[in-house]
Amino acid sequence: MSLTNLALSGKHVLVTGGTGFIGSRLIERLAIEENAKARVLVHHPANAARVARLPIEMIGGDVLNPADVERAADGCEIIFHCAYGTSQDETIQRRVNVEGTKNILDAGLRAKAKRIVHFSTLLVYGVTADGDLDETACRKPFGNTYSDSKLDAERLALDYIRRHQLPVVILQPTAVYGPFALQWTVRVLERMKTGRLILVNGGDGLRNAVYIDDLVSAAVLAAVKKEAPGEAFLISGDSPVTWREFYRSYEQMLGLSDRLVNLSASEAKALYLRAKKVKSILSEVRALVHELPDLRRRLLSTREVAFMTKSARRLFSNRVWSRLKSQISVYGPTAAPADVISQERSHLLDPATIDFHAAKTRVRIDKARRILDYQPAFEFSRGMQLTERWARWANLLGPTHPALCQPTRTDKLAAG
Amino acid sequence: MKERIRLALIGCGAVARIHHLPAIARVAAADLAVLVDPSLERARELAAKYRPRRVVRDYREVTDEVDAAIVATPNYLHAPIAIDLLRRGIHVLVEKPMALSSQDCEQMISAAQENGAVLAVGMEMRFFHPCRFVRQALSKNLLGRIDSFDLRAGVVSNWPSTTDYFLHKKQSGGGVLIHYGVHVLDLLLWWLGDCAEVSYRDDALGGVEANCEMKLRLRAGASGTAEISRMRKLRNTCLIEGEHGSLEIELWDPDGHVYLKHGDDLVLNGCVGAGADATRESAPDVFLRQLVDFVEAIRQRRAPFIPGLEVLPAVRLIETCYASKQALELPWMISWPDQNGYQRVA
Fold it and tell me: What pLDDT is recorded for position A179?
C-alpha cells in the first residue's frame, strides 16, 4: 500500500542503479505500491531480470555518458540516484560515483526535476566515535575509495543545492541488509561459508543497520515531503545492534557456530599489518580459490589434478600422503585450522574499519522522523527473519533439494 | 549436391559472434555468403574476421544468393523470417525458441514440407552427449516405468547479449520460461514424452517473469516439478525416478555428469562421451555438430537431428503455461502495511 497516499501515482520517475539491490526494491515499491511510472537506466541488460518483471520503462545507458543520462531524465519529475561504482578498478569506481553524480545533477537541472533523491552513505562521516551521531557531525574521509568518492559525490550535491537551488535530498543510510544486499548479506554469508570473520573486541561495537524496505520507505518519503529538499538525513533501523548480534544472525542462518574470530582491536591491526607486508601471488591465488567454491570445484575436477593426485598417491608413503591430503583439504570448507589467525581465510579488516567496528556509535534518526515522517517498520530480528527466508530461496544457505551427481565430483579428492 | 552450401547468417548478436560464426568457419561445406543485421556496423565488425561476400541490412536483398540461412534474430522475428525463407525453398536453422506460438511453429513446419526445405531448430542441448545418453537409457526402458521427476534450472547469466530483447514481452515472447525454460522443457519432454496436465506459476507483474515453477503430469503417467530462474543459482540438474532406479543429469553443461543407479548397483557416475575415443566437449563442439548436421541434412535430403515437429510439444507447453498462469509469491515481496505505512509488519 502507498506510503504517500499515492502522491507519486502517475508521476514519471527515473531510477539510476535500478538493477542493483536498492534500486530494484525501490522500483518494485514505486511501480506496485506507489503506482508511479518508473523508468530505469539499465547499464547491463543481463542484470535487469528482476525489474523487467514490472511494468516499467527500461532505457539502456551509462551514468558516465551525459547524453544517456539526459535522455533518461527527460520528462521525469523525480530522480532517484542509486547508481554507484562496483568496478574492481578504483579509478572507474570513483568516476561512476563522482562524475556519474555530476551527470545526474546536471540532467536534473536541465530537466527541471522537482526532486532528486541522492543515495549517499553514513561513511561520509568517516570513522565515527562512541556516542550519538546526527547530521550535524563533521564530514571527513574514511580512507577507502568507495567512502571517499561517495563523500565527494555528496559534496557535489550540496554544491548544486547551494549554487543552483536544485531540490536534492541526501540520504545517508547505515549498513543496508536484507534480500539481495551484496555487501551486508550475500558477502557475509559467502565469507562465512568459506572462511571466518573477525569480531573486533568481541563484537561489542555497535552496528547501525537498516533493513532494505525501511531505506526504500525513507526514499519514497524523501521524494514527496515538502521540507526535505536541501537536507541530508541519516537513515537507520530503530536502534543499533552489536556486531556480535549482527554476525551471529548470519551464523545461525547457516547453522554454524565457529565462523567468528574474537580479536582485540590491536590484535586485528597487527594481523592486518603482518598480512600486508608479505603478499605473494601464491597466497592471493589460494585466497581466491577459497573464496570461489565453483573455481575450487572446477580446479579439483580437472584431468591434471586427478593425474597429480593419482601419481602422488603412488609416490608417497601413507603417512606423507595423509599429511599432504590434510594440506589439500585446507582448501575445503570443512577444514578447522588450529591457528585461525594465521589463515588467510580470516577476512582481514584495515585499521580504519577496525576502529569503525570497535566504535559504539548510535546513529540518530530523529531528523528523518521529524521531517520525513520516517519510521522504521522492521526491527532487526524481523529484518533478519525476512533475510533468512530470502537467502533460503536464493540457495545461499546450502542445498535444499537432493543433488546426487554433484557431490561425487567435489569429493573426488577428499575421498581419494 | 556436391557444391558448398551458400549460407546467410541473419542476426549478428552474441550467439552469432560466439557460436555460429566460429562453427561456420570450421565447416568446409558451408560457405558464408552473407551477414545480415539492421546494424551494418555490427555486421561489418564480424565481417572483418569472417569475410562473407556481402553484408546487408535486410535478408530480403539476398534471398537469390543463398541456399540456407541461420536465423539468430530476437525471438519475435524467428517465425516471419523463417516462413518467408522456407517458402522460397531456402533451408533454415532457426535459433531457440523456434517461435512464440505453436501456430507459428505449425506454419513453419508446413512451409518447410511444402517447399522441400530443411527446418532445423537450434535446441543445442539435445546434442549434448549426456542428454542423448539419458534419452537412450530411458527409451531402452532402463529405469522401467517412470514415476517422478524433479527439474531445477537457475542461473544468473552474464551472457553478453547485444540487445535487451529478452527483457521485453513483445520481442522475446516472455521471460525466463521461454528464455531458459524452452531448453530444459524440450529436454524433459524429449526424454519422458509429452505433457498431459500442467499448473504454472510465475512472478511477472506486468513485465516478463524471472522465476517460474510448474507441476506437470505426463501422458505416460509420471509427475513432477520444474523450477526455472534467471535470478538465482539453482541445483541445475534433472532427477528422474523410475521403478528400477533413478538418474540425475547436470544441465547446461555439454560435458555434464550423469548419475545413474539401477536397483542397488551404481551403474554410472561420471561423464558420457561418444565413440571409443570419447573426449570432453565444450559449447563450440556442440555448435559445430549442429551445423554439420544441418548441412548434411540439406545434402542428403534427410530430416535434421532436431526437426521442427519435435520441438512443437515444448512450445505448446510454454503456451499453455502462459495462458493458465497463476501468481508466484516471492519471499521478499511482502505485502505492505496499512495506508500510513507505519504499521509494523507482523
Answer: 98
Q: What is the mean pLDDT of each run of 10 residues along chain A (416 residues)?
A: 91 97 97 96 94 97 97 97 94 97 97 97 96 97 95 98 97 98 96 93 97 98 97 97 98 95 94 77 71 74 75 65 49 37 68 96 98 96 96 86 46 30
User: Which residue ranges form the domains of chain B, and what is each CATH number?
Assistant: 5-124 (3.40.50.720), 125-289+306-327 (3.30.360.10)
pLDDT value of residue B343: 41
Substitution target from A4, A5, A404, A412 for chain B, most B beta carbons within 10 A: A404
Q: Does B38 touch chain A (CB under 8 A)?
A: no
**Interface touch A406/B234, C-beta < 8 Å:** no
Of the candidates A217, A377, A393, the beta carbon closest to that of B344 is on A377
Cell of B327: 501468481
Assembly ipTM: 0.92
Give the closest-approach CA distance of A5 to chain B in angstroms.
7
Q: Distance between terminal CA atoms of chain B?
A: 73
Task: Pick the residue from chain B with its C-alpha nearest to A45.
Answer: B164
Instruction: Say what the pTM is.
Output: 0.87
CB-count burial class (<10 Å; 0-12, 13-18, 19+) for A169: buried
The two beta strands, B146-154 and B237-242, are antiparallel
Lowest mean pLDDT among A68-72, A270-274, B100-104, B186-190: A270-274
Chain A within 8 Å of B337 (Cβ-Cβ)? yes
Closest CA to B186 of B118, B92, B122: B122
pLDDT of residue A261: 93
Which of A58, A393, A405 is closest, CB to CB, to B257? Answer: A405
Number of H helices, E strands in chain A: 17, 16
Taking CB atoms and an 8 Å limit, are A53 and B204 in contact across chains? yes
pLDDT attached to residue B345: 38
> What residues in A contact B342, CB-CB < 8 Å?
375, 377
Start-to-end Cα distance in chain A: 58
B237 and A CB contact within 8 Å: yes
Domains of chain A and CATH, by start: 12-197+205-248+360-393 (3.40.50.720), 257-352 (no CATH)
Query: Chain B window 41-80: which residues touch A at a Cβ cutoff of 8 Å?
Result: none
Of B203, B237, B344, the CB nearest to A405: B237
Q: What is the pLDDT of residue A303?
A: 77
pLDDT top residue among B273 and A344: B273
User: 210-269 in A: which are within 8 Å (CB) of B?
Assistant: 213, 217
Rg (CA), chain B: 21
Tally C-beta pairs within 8 A across A and B: 133
Looking at per-residue confidence, does B193 or A346 come out higher? B193
Kindly report the nearest CA distance between residue B33 and chain A, in angstroms.
31
